[in-house]
Specification:
single chain, alpha+beta, Tetrahydropterin Synthase, Chain A, 3-stranded antiparallel β-sheet
């Protein structure tokens, strides 16, 4: 049975049949006219429609508009993290920056681009480079940086990270090209690191990349594998040289205080000897000044007494030997000083007192030719 044939108790199954009338497809113009009448009733009243139909359509439309407005408002809420800054684009053009926190933007009007300004990123470059002395060396270098200006980072250049990589490679090749290979491999790495940073900052400054160089690190420098063994020997020799220098400096620091102590001790001893000599000389002068009146009063007696005191001092500090010359035997002798040292105090008390006859001193005074007698002394007194 066809859909347009009568059936089912005489009913027509045609969906487009209204009120038993056989019609074709609906007219689209009529549909749009009916919709425009309903909208006109909401905003200005529909004269052709009933009051109930107009109020129902108006309520639905208002509800839809309220829901759409709320959805638009809530869609503009966004959050910027503590380590980020937001770059606002209004109709595709830079407008402002926003700080961390909860913010709102008009959807479809503003667009927010979050930019991380706190995280330190690392950029590594590696490659063979030619030194000033025409040697080839493989250098590994690392640059640590972070975003300083979000606007410049987003809009100054197309790719700031790639630009920084190219600038780092250019700065490193320039510095290595003006350095000797021994400096690159051993003792000149710190100088190369500092020069590379200065050169890199001077290169990226005109481009306004919005990046800040935090630090640069000289990771590694290696010669080609064909000559690596020879360079390892040279580096080992330089390390030995530095080790010997440090050991020598440590020895110097250890021996210097001892030498200074000896110098101070010698100086103090010299100063003490100086003072002792001065005091001794002053004592001798004082003693002779006291003897002078006695010598003027009795020159001969004073000379004899001085002579005896001097000989006593001299013989007291020399070895004493007793030789038997009367019997003609010059070989037999007695070392008195050793015998006295062995016997000690007992030998001093047991041995008889020995006196040595000393020659009389020759008079140096032309006025006195003979020694004075007791009568002369008494008569003079």
């Amino acid at each position: 049975m066809a859909w347009n044939e009568p059936g089912n108790n005489g009913k027509n199954n045609d969906p487009w049949n209204q009120g038993g009338r056989n019609q074709g497809p609906p007219d689209m113009d009529e549909v749009f006219r009916n919709l425009s009448k309903k909208l006109g009733g909401v905003f200005g009243g529909n004269k052709g429609g009933s009051a109930g139909d107009n109020s129902g359509g108006s309520a639905v439309l208002v509800l839809l508009l309220v829901v759409a407005l709320l959805g638009w408002l809530f869609s503009g809420i966004y959050t910027i993290k503590e380590s980020e800054r937001g770059v606002i684009l209004r109709f595709g053009q830079y407008h402002a920056e926003v700080n961390p926190g909860i913010n709102w933007k008009p959807t479809f009007i503003d667009k927010v681009l979050p930019v991380d300004i706190s995280t330190v990123q690392a950029l590594k470059t590696d490659g063979f480079m030619l030194t000033q002395d025409q040697n080839l060396v493989r250098v590994t270098f690392e640059v640590q940086y972070r975003v300083a200006d979000p606007r410049l980072y987003k809009f100054a250049v197309v790719d700031p990270d790639a630009s920084l990589r190219q600038a780092t490679d250019a700065a490193l090749r320039y510095v290595v090209g003006h350095s000797m290979m021994d400096d690159v491999l051993t003792k000149g790495r710190e100088v190369i690191r500092q020069n590379t940073r200065v050169e890199l900052e001077s290169i990226i400054k005109p481009y306004n990349l919005g990046l800040e160089i935090v630090d640069v690190n000289f990771r590694d420098a290696r010669p080609p594998e064909e000559v690596k063994a020879a360079f390892d020997d040279a580096i080992a020799a330089q390390e030995d040289e530095q080790r010997f220098i440090q050991e020598a400096q440590a020895y110097a620091r250890a021996i210097e205080p001892e030498a200074r102590g000896r110098v101070n001790r010698v100086m103090q001893e010299a100063e003490a000897y100086k003072q002792q000599s001065q005091l001794k000389a002053q004592g001798e002068v004082a003693r002779f000044e006291k003897l002078l009146p006695e010598y003027i009063a009795s020159p001969q007696v004073t000379r004899e007494r001085l002579y005896l005191e001097t000989m006593e001092q001299v013989y007291g500090n020399t070895s004493k030997v007793l030789v038997d010359v009367k019997n003609g035997n010059n070989i037999m002798y007695l070392p008195l000083d050793k015998m006295l040292n062995q016997n000690g105090s007992a030998a001093k008390t047991a041995a008889p007192e020995q006196r040595l006859t000393l020659p009389e001193p020759r008079s140096t005074d032309s006025r006195i030719d003979t020694p004075r007698t007791d009568s002369n002394r008494a008569g003079r007194g």
